[in-house]
Amino acid sequence: MAEVLVLVEHADGEPKKVTGELLTLARSLGEPSAVFTGGANTYAKAKAYLAEYGAAKVYVAESDDVAQYVAAPVAEVLAKLVGEASPVAVLVAATADSREIAARTAAKTESGLIWDATAVSPELVATQGVFGGSTIVNSKVTKGTPVIVVRPNSTAPVAAPSSPAEVTVDVAISDVAKGAKILDRVAEAKSGRPDLTEAQVVVSGGRGLGAAEHFALVEKLADTLGAAVGASRAATDAGWYPHQNQVGQTGKTVSPQLYIAVGISGAIQHRAGMQTSKTIVAVNKDPEAPIFEFADYGLVGDLFNVVPQLTDEVEKRKG
Amino acid sequence: MNIVVTVKQVPDTWAEKKLDAADKTVDRVSVDNVMNEMDEYGVEEALKIKEAHGGEVTVVTMGPAKAVETIRKALSMGADKAVHLTDDALHGSDALQTSAALAKVIATLSPDLVITATEASDARGGVMGALLAERLGLPQLTQARKVTVDPGAGKVSIERLADNGYALVEASLPAVVGVVEKINQPRYPSFKGIMAAKKKPLTTLSAGDAGLDAGSVGLAGAGSTVVDAQLAPPRQSGTIVKDEGDGGVKIAEFLAAQKLI
Questions:
Q1: Distance (Å) from the C-alpha of residue B261 to the closest C-alpha of chain A?
Q2: Contacts with A281 from chain B: Cβ below 8 Å
Q3: pTM of whole model > 0.90?
Q4: How many CA atoms lie less than 13 Å away from A269 in the CB half-sphere?
Q5: Do B238 and A298 touch (CB under 8 A)?
Q6: Does the distance separating the beta carbons of B237 and A71 come in below 8 Å?
């Protein structure tokens, strides 16, 4: 069976959930080969996870060069492996970093690129929801090796333990790929919450919150549910919450099992980033808010009463 | 500083966007078209850098004839001149072809800095900055929420957005910089700016003028093809309840019934 390359998404070696999703998807397309790229001595933390999700092979490209420069070195590694392994497809996660890497890889290998796929058939037909999910497009790469950028939460990760063969990649990064040097990484947000695009549950706040400090209500509910926190553009424009958390037409696209919109009207700008969520719950005091036209459960009321009560009730039920 | 900024004309953000029934490309005919909202941040950043360090801002776009409206907007905001790559043969080009075409045009301008936005609101690829860097062989400084240029040292550095903060990234000039929404407050064109824009130099290039091989551009040469496309079934509205003082409990009951808690 032909190989399917899967770019491992990880944080300092710890694989992210989307990696298991991509390996699960890759198993339906061919023989999954994980491509691990990271700084020196980071692979050890990923090894067991990649075996658990059925990688038949792991290409290990450990080098400080791939960690210290933006996008270009990893694209060189992937392009080199495409040349050597002749895979049927390359799968990468739809994160800001990896979609850039995917694009550069497609350019280097003169291949077609499809982004934001939510499904890929064994015939390599990729499904995308375009225009914020209002149109469903099935498309196929017609040139080179299909490079497909897959949305997190598109495939349920299923373990399939294996004993992958490890192949050490000789990493020789060109000078031109070492143009954009990462001097420092600065963490600003207190983490501990799941990544917005990977989360199973997202709680988002909007204009109805009225002030930055009221996001505490949203955060408290999110933490009770183990959820990520999102924000509407109105809220980030007002400076109430960081831009990284913006969900919508401009901002992130999320597709969790449960999306709770707090004080968000649900205009097209926001809807485009969340309407493929499995279940949508909305709290808004305006009964005419467009969000009620597509929410599965809508509560017309004052969020300052409803949200704390919901948080307490969830807490109570957790027992 | 010789600054190039790329812009794209797209269907209005607030319009219901559709695919053309015949060739499955974005329908740009039945909607109002505007400058991609994100590009306004790119133009503003270019103007700010010019104002701080001197130089010239050249707007580059690829698109149909009417994309000249978007060029005019950038010029009325304060850009100095523009290049419009337009040719029926380019219709249907994908991001890879578009990046190759734009790179060819941009290279002839020998910029110190190429500025792009993060994404266009129609295709939402978020890849053009990376692709231009790849094609031009320049450092990729994308996802920038802050840009600092030091022309004396020949350096540019950015704060690159990350999930929980940012990375400080530095490169030598020339470089490609991709800016995110909210990096600045894009200016509105002034009346004077709008009048002045009409007199600013605009170069129109065909695919041939730009040295592009006709066989490599457009829908026929694209790297992927649409098998089929249809409108998604509209999401139905569910249960809407008015809060009677127990709204939070009601939601929890709904979540429990759905096995979500």
A1: 7
A2: 251, 254-255
A3: yes
A4: 17
A5: yes
A6: no
pLDDT of residue A191: 66
The answer to whether A93 contacts chain B (CB < 8 Å) is: no
HEC readout, chain A: CCEEEEECCEECCEECHHHHHHHHHHHCCCEEEEEEEECCCCCHHHHHHHHHCCCCEEEEEECHHHHHECCHHHHHHHHHHHHHHCCCEEEEECCHHHHHHHHHHHHHCCCCEEEEEEEECCCCEEEEEECCCCEEEEEEECCCCCEEEECCCCCCCCCCCCCCEEEECCCCCCHHHHCCEEEEEEECCCCCCCCCCCCCEEEEECHHHCCHHHHHHHHHHHHHHCCEEEECHHHHHCCCCCHHHEECCCCECCCCCEEEEECCCCCHHHHCCCCCCCEEEEEECCCCCHHHHCCCEEEECCHHHHHHHHHHHHHHHHC
Facing B96 at nearest CB: one of A113, A300, A309? A113
Average pLDDT, chain B: 95
Interface test with chain A among B114, B155, B255, by most A beta carbons within 10 Å? B255
The model's confidence at residue A143, banded by pLDDT at 50, 70 and 90, is: very high
Q: Inter-chain contact A180–B38, Cβ cutoff 8 Å?
A: no
What mean pLDDT do residues A80-108 have?
Answer: 97
* Residue of chain A nearest B99, judged by CA positions: A107
**A179 with B138: Cβ contact below 8 A:** yes
**Would you call the peptide bond into B186 cis, given omega within 30 degrees of 0 as the criterion?**
no
Structure tokens at A206: 């909007």
CA–CA separation, A270 and A249 (whole Å): 6
> What angle (nearest 5°) sits at the alpha carbon of residue A54, between those of residues A49 and A82?
100
Chain A contacts of B39, Cβ < 8 Å?
A: none
Tokens of B123: 């295709």
Residue B13's pLDDT band, with cuts at 50, 70 and 90, is confident
* Chain A residues lying within 8 Å of B21, measured CB to CB: none
What residue ranges in chain B does DSSP mark as E strands? 2-6, 9-11, 33-35, 56-62, 81-85, 113-117, 140-150, 155-162, 165-172, 175-179, 202-205, 224-231, 239-242
pLDDT tens track for B143-168: 999 999 999 999 999 999 988 889 99
Closest CA to B202 of B37, B79, B99: B79
Largest CA distance in chain B: 69
Residues of B in contact with A184 (CB under 8 A): 167-168
User: Of the candidates A230, A221, A224, which has an alpha carbon nearest to the alpha carbon of residue A199?
Assistant: A230
* Interface residue A103 vs chain B (CB under 8 A): yes
Task: Determine which of A310, A316, A318 to mutate to test the interface with B (most B C-beta atoms within 10 Å).
Answer: A310
B212, A276 Cβ separation under 8 angstroms: no
Contact between residue A117 and residue A26 where contact means Cβ atoms under 8 Å apart: no
Q: Please give the biggest Cα pair distance in chain A.
A: 61
Show residues of chain B in contact with A199, CB under 8 Å. none
A147: amino acid identity, one letter: V
